[in-house]
Amino acid sequence: MKLSLVVPCYNEEAVLSRFDETVRAALGGLAVEYELCYVDDGSADGTLPRLRSLAQQHHDTTYLSFSRNFGKEPAILAGLRAATGDAVIIMDADLQHPPQLIEKMLDLYQLGHDQVIAKRSRHGDRRLRSALSRLYYRAVNTWVDVELTDGVGDFRLLSRKAVDALLSLPEYNRFSKGLFSWIGFDTVTFDYRNAAREAGETKWRFGSLVNYGIDGMLSFNCRPLRLAIYAGLGLASLATLYTLWIIGAAVVGGVTAPGYVTLVAIIVGLGGLQMVMLGLIGEYIGRIYYETKRRPHFLVKESNADRAPAPAAGP
Length: 315
Ligand code: UDP
Ligand code: MG
Known about the structure:
Layout: E1 2-9, H1 13-28, E2 33-40, H2 47-57, E3 61-66, H3 72-82, E4 87-90, H4 101-110, E5 115-120, H5 127-143, E6 152-159, H6 160-167, H7 176-183, E7 187-192, H8 206-218, H9 223-253, H10 260-293, E8 300-303
Helix pairs in contact: 1-2
The chain binds uridine-5'-diphosphate (UDP) and magnesium ion.
Uridine-5'-diphosphate binds at residues 8-10, 12, 41, 69, 71-72, 75, 92-94, 96, 197, 202-204.
């Protein structure tokens, strides 16, 4: 069998050579043929020259380089399209995904699993970040159809069947955590202890995490819109009850003037709620807008693989 490693790289100059050596050392001991598919996601540092020289040193190395930074999801997609193996492992370039686990993943693959997921502990994460993540996943799993699990990310092995299934999904907004879960297939999960980043720095800022979170909520169904309807119905019923109560009070005790604070609170509260609902609807319309443009997910500036997808190979 042949194994492909897909590695998205964005400004990973500091760690790339070490990554390559470590992975080769781990793979060397295993009885598999392998290839490495590096995707340079428009890095601004020396990542691309490094990839060029790696590809020159090793015949089993494919690289492609994007015309600008498109994000990790498009980079993974490009890697999956370029990979030719019977099984594919997606790995970060920063050695946070221990290459020693490849062997275990292959063993599980050979038992017949189509997705072998390595689930990380949140060891070493800031406590606030872990707590927020837990809260988020609980909310998502009540509102969204697909199951998302905390600590389960892109680090996984996919069989050819699973890769082809992923590649058959044409959407522009790719929230791959959800896509992985959506395609299903025979899935197995095991835990590993998260390592700290070897060098360089994380590309996640708090803002980008929040945006990622919203993507996760909205990428899979229209259930949040249903939530808006429920909230509207609930509020309307409350308003009716309140009106009845006021009328009753006026009949019993006569009309008095207080209630200013109540009024302001209701107006502000309802205004806020309406903004949220409008934003929600706007988000879905925005998504439709993006999908209808049918732009390719990424543009390739340079590659050493003739089998690499042509720039216009959009869905
Ligand atoms: N990455 C990418 N494009 C981006 C951001 C990140 O290809 O726009 C890659 C990055 O090079 C790394 C992986 O995605 O290989 C994970 O990124 P990072 O380590 O910053 O995320 P974290 O581990 O902190 O979640
Ligand atoms: Mg990382």
